[in-house]
Description:
Elements: H1 3-15, H2 20-31, H3 40-49, H4 54-78, H5 80-89, H6 93-106, H7 108-116, H8 121-130, H9 135-192
Helix pairs in contact: 1-3, 1-9, 2-4, 3-4, 3-9, 4-8, 4-9, 6-7, 6-8, 7-8, 7-9
Amino acid sequence: MRLFSSLYSRTMQWSRHPHAPRYLAGLSFAESSFFPIPPDVMLAPMSLAMPKKAWYYAGLTTFASVLGGLLGYLIGLFAFDLIEPYLHEWGYWEAYLTAQGWFERWGFWAIFIAGFSPIPYKVFTITAGVISMALLPFMLASAIGRGARFFLVAGLMSWGGERMEQALHRYVDRIGWVLVLLFLLLLLFLNST
C-alpha cells in the first residue's frame, strides 16, 4: 500500500509553499512551550526541498524555538499552578519529575541536552522557570542546544539534496511501514515488561 509516498509528496509541496517559513517559525515557537509536534517535521523537508536556504531555515527555527522556550520559562515561573493538572493529564508528569532531577544534577547542561535531544523540550523550559534558573544561562544553553540540533538536521538534509529527495521518494513507503512495525514492536515490548 502506497500510503507514505502520497504523504511524502504532499509534505514536499507544503515545504515549498511561500508561507512555509512563517509556519516553521510558529511551530518552533509553540513546540518549545506547549505544542507536542517538533519543528524537525517541517525543517527537514524544507531543507531538503530548498537546500540553498537550509541554514536560513535552521537559524529561523533556532531563534523561534529559543523565544518559545522563554515563554515556557515564564509559564513555569508565573503559571505553574495553572498548568500542573495538564502535565498529569497529558502524560508529561514523569518527564517533569525527570527534568527536575536533571536540573538538580546538571543545571545548565540539562537545558543543553534537552535542547539537542528528542526529549520534550517544553518540559525543561517550564521546569527551568519553576526552579527559577538564571535567565542568561537558560537562554544560552537553549540557543546552543537547539541550534546544534536544528543546524545538524538542516545540514544533513541540504547535503543530501535532490539525490536524497529522490531516494526517499522511491523508498518512503518501505521505510514508513518498517518504522510502523518497529513502533508496534516497541509498544508490545514495553507493555510486556
